[in-house]
Amino acid sequence: MNFTFRLIISLLLISTFGFSQKLSRTEKKIRSYVEKQTDNAIDLIQKVVNINSGSLNIEGNKEVGNIFQKELDKLGFKTYWVTYYDSVKRAGHLFAEMRGGKGKKIVMIGHLDTVFEVDHPFQKYIRKGNKAFGPGIGDMKSGDVSMIYAMKALDHVGVLKDMDLTLVFIGDEEKLGAHSSIVRKELIEAGKWADVGLGFEGAGGMNTGTIARRSASSWILKTTGIQGHSSRVFSESLGYGAIFESSRILNAFREELSEEQYLTFNPGAIVGGTDVEYDPLNARGNAYGKTNVVSQSVVVHGGIRTISMDQLDSAMNSMKKIVSNNLPGTTALIEFKTSYPPMEPTQANYDLLDQLEEINKALGFGVLKPLDPSMRGAADISFVAPHVDASLAGMGPDGHGAHSEDEWLDLSTLPKTTSRAAILIYRLTR
C-alpha cells in the first residue's frame, strides 16, 4: 500500500469517526429539551420521593404509579395496571405501551417501591446544592422520572408515536409479593416481545455502563444432631451435634468456594440449639439450648449471587456435595430458591454499550467502561435479558447510599443520563 492510499484511508477513518461522534439536529433538540426541563424533572422527583412507597404500602405505590400514569397518558401511551390476588399484598405493576411500528422494540424497566416502609424515620426529600437526599431517590424514583422525561423529549421532537416501546414500573422489586413466575409473568412476556431491554436504576458512576447483573437466590440449611448430655459429645453414641455440623458446612463453603470470581454467598441468619423456631419469610427466629446439652437443630438462612446460570448450577452442586459429607451423628439438608436470574454479560450487551458510549462522547461526557458486575445487585432487567437481543442496566442518574438513610442523588447527572438514554432510544428506533 503506497503512502497516498494510506493517507486517504486514514483521512476517511478520521472523517467517519468524527461524524460518528456528532449529534444530529434532532438529537441536539433532544438534549436541549431535556436540559430546559431539568427543574421540572427535579420537582417531579421531589413530589414522588415525598410519597412513601415501601413495598408493603399498596396505596403509596399506587399513588406514585398514578402520577407517572397521568404523565404517560398525556404522551399518548396506552397505560394499565397489572394486579394480583389479595394474598400477594402488593400494588402490582404499571405498564405503558406505544405501538408505532418503527425500529427496534424496546422494553424499559423501573420500579415504584422502596425499602423504606411507612414506619421508617427516613421519609422526606432534602436538597443540598446538587445533592438531593430522600428514600428511594436513587433506587429508583429518579430513574423512573428520567425514563418519563426521555419520553417527553422524544415526543417533543415528534418521533415518539412512531416507536414500539413498553415501559414497566414494578411495584414489588424490593420485596417480591409472590414467586417470580407469578408476579413477573407479564414482564417476561414484555421481554419476549422486545428486541432491547433497558433498566433505569442508577448509573453506578457516569463513566461506567452496566452490561451484567448477578442473580439473587436464597438457601436454607438445616442440620440435625442427637440430643444428649454434653459430656458425651463426639462419642460414637451422640456424635457432634447440629451446631458443629452447621459450622463444618459453612466453613467448607468459605474454604472451597469463596475465591471464585463473581460468586458470593452469605449466611445472613442462624438459629440453633435444642428447640428452634425460624420464619424464613421475615428472617426471624428463636432458639433454646443449654451448654450441657448437645444441640439438636440448626437453621441457617443465606443468599447466593452468580454471574450466570451455569455458575449458579455449579455452586449449588458443590454446596450440596459439602452438605452431604456429614459429621458422625448428624444429618444436613440444603434447599435453594431462585428469585432473580442473572443478566449475563453477552457480546451484544457490550456492543450496545459501545453505542451508548458513542452518544456519551458526542455529548461531551467521555468514555464508558463496563461496570464490574460484583458492584451491582439483582434487578428486574434480569427477567428480560434472556429474551432480548441486547440489554443495558444503570440507565438512570447517578447516586449513592441506596437502602440507607444516606441515600442521595447527584442532580447534575439527571439531564446527562436522560439525554443519552433518549438519544440511544432514538437511534435504536431509526
Strand order of the largest sheet: 1-2-6-3-7-16
Name of the top-level CATH class of the largest domain: Alpha Beta
Question: How would you state the average pLDDT, rounded?
Answer: 94
| CATH architecture classification of the largest domain | 3-Layer(aba) Sandwich
CATH fold assignment of the largest domain: Aminopeptidase
Main structural class: alpha+beta
Which spans of ≥5 residues are poorly predicted at pLDDT below 50?
1-20
List the helices and strands and how they pair.
Elements: H1 3-20, H2 25-36, H3 38-49, H4 58-74, E1 78-82, E2 93-99, E3 102-111, E4 126-128, E5 131-133, H5 137-156, E6 163-170, H6 180-183, H7 185-193, E7 196-199, E8 208-209, E9 216-224, H8 241-257, E10 264-273, E11 275-279, E12 284-288, E13 297-305, H9 309-324, E14 331-340, H10 347-362, E15 369-370, H11 381-384, E16 390-392, E17 399-400, E18 408-410, H12 414-428
Parallel strand pairs: 3-6, 3-7, 7-16, 8-15
Antiparallel strand pairs: 1-2, 2-6, 4-5, 5-18, 9-13, 9-14, 10-13, 11-12, 17-18
Helix pairs in contact: 2-5, 2-12, 3-5, 5-12, 8-9, 10-12
